[in-house]
Amino acid sequence: MTESAADSKPRVAKRVLDVGQCVPDHGAIRRLLEGQFGAEVVRAHLPGDTWEALRAGTFDLVLINRLLDADHSEGLAILSAIKADPATRGLPVMVVSNYPEHQQAAVAAGAEEGFGKAELNLPATHAKLARFLS
Fold first, then answer.
1. What is the pLDDT of residues 85-101, one digit of tens each?
2. Under CATH, to which class is 18-133 assigned?
3. Phi and psi, residue 7, nearest 5°
4. From CA 74, how far away is CA 27, in angstroms rounded?
């Protein structure tokens, strides 16, 4: 039996950088992204390792927690830095927050409309993610 050219091409997974999530939330987000979209998920905790990851590889989407789990700093600061840097400003970023006012602030700072952890299994969240991961 021979493989067709389409069958022999390696599948290129979309890559997501997940920043500032606690262990349970990162696990839930990772399961969704891997299971629903076949995405590769890379984890970062703070601004330093976020920038290391962004310099080391290409990402299709960045998810940033509203408050970073490691030090409780504002995720919006990382969003602002990403959007201020010419090398990363075009990268789609979503803030993970259940609070509409924080979603609005993130969009005003250049983010795509994100979602809250309580909304992970909603079709609307899957549709938001599919724009970048399908």
1. 999 999 999 999 999 99
2. alpha beta
3. -70, -30
4. 21
Q: Token pair for residue 131?
A: 């724009």
Tokens representing residue 95 in the block: 């803030």
pTM across the whole model: 0.90
Q: Can you read off the two tokens belonging to residue 69?
A: 């789990």
| Domain range list for the chain | 18-133
The 3-state secondary structure of the chain, one letter per residue = CCCCHHHHCCCCCCEEEEECCCHHHHHHHHHHHHHHHCCEEEEECCHHHHHHHHHHCCCCEEEEECECCCCCCEHHHHHHHHHHCCCCCCCCEEEECCCHHHHHHHHHCCCEEEECHHHCCCHHHHHHHHHHHC
